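Why this split exists: single-chain examples teach little about how molecules sit against one another. For that reason, every record in the complexes split bundles all components of an assembly together and asks for one structure covering all of them. Below is a record exactly as it appears in the raw files.
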Amino acid sequence: MVEFKNVSVTYSSGVDALSNINLKINDGDFAFVVGSNGAGKSTLIKLILKEIDATEGTVIANGYNLRKIRRSKISKLRRTIGVVFQDFRLIPTMTVYENIAFVLRVIDAPKKYIKTRVPYVLELVGLSDKMKAYPEQLSGGEQQRVALARALVNDPKLIIADEPTGNIDPELSYDIVELLKCINECGTTILMVTHEHNLVRYFGGRVINLDGGQVVFDEEVGGSNESK
Amino acid sequence: MRVSSVGYLIKQGASSVWKNRMMSFASFCILLVSLMLVGFSVLAGLNMSAIVSGIEDKNEIVVILYDGISEEQTDSLLVQLNSLSNVSEVKFYSREEAWASIVEDMSEEEKSFMQYAENDNPLPDTYRVKVSDLELMEITTSQIKTFGGVESVQSPTSFADALVSIRNIVALISSAVILALIIVCLVIISNTTRTSVHARRKEINIMKYVGATNTFIRVPFFIEGMIIGIVAAAGALLLTRFAYNELYSVLNDQLSLINVIGTKSLYSFDSIALPVTVCYLGAGTFIGALGTTISTGKYLKV
C-alpha cells in the first residue's frame, strides 16, 4: 500500500514538483500514472523510493513512514519494491542470470533458493534460453523483460514501472503490460508510469492523471481490450 | 550475512578486476609508478643517511698519551674515557701497533730500512675514541684534555660540524621530497580510483535501487582495490629490487667512493628486503582498498 497525505515537493531550484497530493494505492491495485513532462510523475516515484524527501506531508510505502524512516532502513524498504526503468538499468558486466540473482543475494537468500528462483522468473518472462547472455547481447524488449524478472524475483509487494515501454517497439509494449497484468493478478501492486495513452486506453484500469504537480484525474476506466 | 554471501562478494570483487580491466590497468599503473617513486625516494634517503653515518663513524678523537705513562694510569684513563656519556667506543692503540701500521704501507726497501729504526719508535701510545653525537665532539674533546696522562688531543671538529650540517640537510631534503611525492601520488591515485568508480556509478545506483546495503556494495570495490593494490605493489617491488640491485653493484664498483663511505654504508637489497616488502605490500593494499572505498561513498547517497 502506498499513501500520499498532503504531499508537496519543492526542489532547491524553487520548482514546485508536487502540490498537496492526496493519493492512496491499495494492495493489489494496478494503476497507470499519466501526465505530460514536468507533471510530477518522476517526483512521485522518487518519493516512494525515498530518493528524495517530501517538503511537506507524509508518504507511506509498504508500511514504512518515509518521513520517519531511518537511513539504515531505506535498503529494507527498497527490497519490498521492484522497479522497472525505461532505460532497463541492467548491470552490463553481469549475465542475465547474475543480474537477477543479484537481487536475491542482496537479501541474503540461500544459494539453493537462488538456483531455483532465477530460472523460474526467467521462464515467466520467456527468457529461459538467455540466462548466460549479457545485456548488450539482447534486444530492447528482451532487456526490459530481464528488468521485469529482476523486479519480481524477490516477490515484492509493489512494482513501479517507470515508462517501461518507452525504449521498446510498440508491438512489444503490449507484451510488457500484459506481463505486468499477469503479475498483478498474483496480488502484486503495480504502479505504471507512462506517456502512451494507447496502452492505457487498450488495457484500462485505474488511471491517475497528474498535471502541474496535482492529481487532476483518478478513476477506473474501461479498456478497449475488455470490450473485444 | 551468510558465508556464501561473503564468498560471493569476494568473488565479485575479484572478477570485477578483469571485467573492468581497462580501469584496473590504469589504477595498477598509477599505483605501481607511485609506489616505486616513493619507495625509491625512501631508499635513497635511507642510504644517504647511512653514508653520512658511515663517514661519521670514521671520525674519532685521537688521545695521545705521555711517553712512559704507567699501566695503572693508562687503565685509569680508559675508565675516565668510558665514563663520558658521549663516548661510544674506546680503543687502545699502542705505539708498536702504530709503528706496524705505518710500516705495512711501505715498500719492501723502506720496510728493510725501517726495521733498523724500530727500537727508536717515536710514536706515542694513543686511545682512539668514537663519539655518539658529533655535535658534542668539541665539548668531549675539552673534557678529555683535562684528564691526567693526556699529552694532547686531536679531533676533526670542523669536519664533524660539516658532517652534521650535511646530515641535517640530507634528512630535510629527503623528507621534503618524500612528503611531496606522497601528496602528488595520493592526488593522482585518488583521481584514478574516482574515475574508475565514476565509470561504474550506474552500477552502484542500480544496486541501491534493488535494496543493497552500502556494505554490500562497498565490499566488492574494497576487494577489487585491494587486489589491484597488491598486484601493483608486487610489480613495484620487483622493479625496485632490480633497479636497486643494479645501482648497488654500480656504486660498489666505485672503489674511490667506497673508500670514503666504507663498504658497509650502503644497504644491500637483501638486508632490507623484509621491511621493504612489508611496506610496499601494506601501502599498495591500503591505498588500493581505501581509494576505491572512499570514491564509492560519493555514489552511495541515493
